[in-house]
Structure formats: structure tokens, C-alpha cells
Amino acid sequence: MSGLIVPPGEGRKLVTRAQEVTFKVTGAHGSSVSIFEVLVPPGFDVGAHTHSQSQEFFYVLEGELELLAFEPTKRTEESWHDWESSGGDRVVRAGAGSSMFVPPGCPHAFRNATDKPARMLFQSLPSPDHEEYFEEIAEIWESGRTVDSGAVEKMRQRYDVEQITPLRYEPPTGR
């Protein structure tokens, strides 16, 4: 029996105009957990959502992300940025070394509200659900100049994603 060693910068890359995902450990390696390195560009907002079966772990490697992992007192459909929990939890601005664990059923989101890319390590269980999800969303991102929100919604329903607020990619202007 052998383990797996993946050197820096190695792994299967999936590059789109919205994200860069490097598959580090996958179901194809025999793992029950999928592990990815994700480059999150400025202006990317995954939108608040839940999973009924999946659990996820995020670790910020470089840059800064806004993170959410709680049930708000009131869910709004347009934005999660001002949500607050009954215990007073609010969105956290998280730098390198910060992490977020998300159990099944917990609303969560991340956004890069800065003008610089952020890099995170992302782990999801069970494998290969998020692997297949990333493959399919890459096809949607690259299919045209704008993102077909209907196609994203149909795809997310197949992958145990209940979308609460929209996924958005609004790169900063003036670059």
C-alpha cells in the first residue's frame, strides 16, 4: 500500500475565467475526501448555500476572504454579506491561516472582496461529489460571455447544493 505525495504546484488543474482549481487528492486516488487548492479571483462570490449531505473545510493560504458559516436570523435572497446569527455571529474577514468548517445543513459562503487573488485549500466529504461539481461548473463558466444562471441552478440541484443567494463574479474594474 502506498500513500500520495503531491509537490507544490502539482495536481490536475482546472482553469476557467472565474477560478483555478488544482485537484490534490480525489476519489480516483481511493480517498473518501476530496482536497483541492483553489485560486479565488477578486470579485468572486460563491453565494450562500447549504448541502444536506456534504461537509467542508476551508483553509486560507494566501490573501483574504470573507467567510460565513452560520444560520442567520433572517435569510435574504440577494446577499449574505450583512447576515447575523441569533448569537451575534457575523461574516468574518479571514486572512492566511484562517479556517472554516461547515457541517451538513449549515449555510455558508465565501467571497473575495479585495483587489488581489486569494488562495485556499478546500476539503469536502464525500468524494467525488465536489470533483464532479467543479468539472461541470467549469463547462458552464466557459460556455459563453455570461454565466447561465439557470444552468448553474440545475447543476447545483444535482450536487446537493441549495443555493440561497446568487453566485457572482464581478471582477474589479479599472484593471
Describe this structure in words.
This protein has 175 residues and is α+β, with helices and mostly antiparallel strands. It is 14% helix and 34% strand. It has helices at 129-142, 149-158, and strands at 12-15, 20-25, 34-40, 44-45, 49-50, 55-62, 64-69, 92-95, 99-102, 108-111, 118-125, 162-163, 168-169. The strands form 4 sheets. A 6-stranded antiparallel sheet has the order 1-2-3-11-6-9, covered by helices on one side. A 3-stranded antiparallel sheet has the order 8-7-10, with no helix packed on it. It has a two-stranded antiparallel sheet with strand order 4-13. Helix 1 (129-142) packs antiparallel against helix 2 (149-158). The chain is globular. The termini are far apart. The model has no long low-confidence stretch (mean pLDDT 90).
Task: List descriptors.
six-stranded antiparallel β-sheet; 2 helices; alpha+beta
SSE blueprint:
Blueprint: E1 12-15, E2 20-25, E3 34-40, E4 44-45, E5 49-50, E6 55-62, E7 64-69, E8 92-95, E9 99-102, E10 108-111, E11 118-125, H1 129-142, H2 149-158, E12 162-163, E13 168-169
Antiparallel strand pairs: 1-2, 2-3, 3-11, 4-13, 5-12, 6-9, 6-11, 7-8, 7-10
Percentage of β-strand residues: 25-35%
Could you tell me the number of beta strands?
A: 13
Helix content: 10-25%
Class by helix and strand content?
Answer: alpha+beta
Alpha-carbon distance between the two ends: 50 Å
Number of helices: 2
Largest sheet: 6 strands, antiparallel
Overall pLDDT metric: 90
Radius of gyration, in Å, reads 16 Å
Order of helices and strands: EEEEEEEEEEEHHEE
Q: Spans with pLDDT under 50 lasting ≥5 residues? A: none
Overall shape: globular
Q: Going across the major beta sheet, what is the strand order?
A: 1-2-3-11-6-9
